[in-house]
Amino acid sequence: MRNFITIEGCEGVGKTYQTRLLKQYCEENGYNVVFTREPGGSEIAEQIRRILLDANNSDMDDLCEAFLYAASRIQHLKDIVKPALEEGKVVFCDRYVHSSYVYQGIGRGLGLDKIVKLNEIAVGEYMPDFTVFLDLSPENAFMRKGGADKTDRMEAVDYSFHVKVYEGYKRLIAEHPEQFEVIDASGTKEQTQAKLREVLQRRGIFK
Ligand code: TYD
């Protein structure tokens, strides 16, 4: 059995915090897991991440951006995800192909089909078993966060972009409900964490 789980959501939903808490829980309970993230996650992939998120690169072409995310993904798969899965570990990845589908395919308007194809080339059979979507609208997320981080090239894109991204996720979930576990992230951090663990228990990842 392969256990490859991805975590998705808009900016400011608390993905990083929730993942950190989950990692701590796994360590305390002796689960054989790897936590990683995209873009980046390995040495070469982190170099690509820096180019992608550098606010000075505001002239980057949208298609160039899509290819760089895919390039980072290929390297990260090779360096981190594939070896861990081969060792029988459970891999949690903070963002993966679905981020590209919605940010580049829908948000940037490159077209979902095109970005799905590009990512098929990048990941082949390495699709996640399922994807946790932390559900919080950009309106609520940015309010909680106190606004966008302007030093991050992606976060700095205007608000309507993030609305498109959120709607993009909703569309993917409607079209592929079997792929997603949707978790309402509008409550407290503790409530969201409890829901997350419940899902992982039901899916047989946690005993
Ligand atoms: P990061 O600081 O890791 O943001 P977050 O904590 O929200 O995950 O930056 C990753 C940014 O890259 C984020 O704005 C989403 C974006 N992104 C894409 O546009 N396409 C992708 O394929 C991936 C993986 C991320």
> How much helix is in the residues?
40-55%
Bound molecules: thymidine-5'-diphosphate
Strand and helix order: EHEHHEHHEHHEH
How many helical elements?
A: 8
Structural class: alpha/beta
Q: How many strands?
A: 5
Strand order, biggest sheet? 2-3-1-4-5
Mean pLDDT comes to: 96
Tell me about this structure:
By secondary structure, this protein is an alpha/beta fold. It is built from eight helices and five strands. Helices cover 54% and strands 13% of the residues. It has a five-stranded parallel beta sheet with strand order 2-3-1-4-5, with helices on both faces. α3 runs antiparallel to α4 (97-107). The longest helix is centred in the middle third of the chain and has 25 residues, at 62-86. It is globular, with a radius of gyration of 16 Å. The model has no long low-confidence stretch (mean pLDDT 96). It binds thymidine-5'-diphosphate. The site of thymidine-5'-diphosphate (TYD) has 15 residues, from α1 and α4.
Search tags:
single chain, 207 residues, alpha/beta, 8 helices, 5 strands
Chart the SSEs and their pairings.
Blueprint: E1 4-8, H1 15-28, E2 33-37, H2 43-53, H3 62-86, E3 90-94, H4 97-107, H5 112-123, E4 130-135, H6 138-145, H7 159-175, E5 180-184, H8 189-202
Parallel strand pairs: 1-3, 1-4, 2-3, 4-5
Helix pairs in contact: 1-8, 2-3, 3-4, 3-5, 4-5, 4-7
The protein binds thymidine-5'-diphosphate.
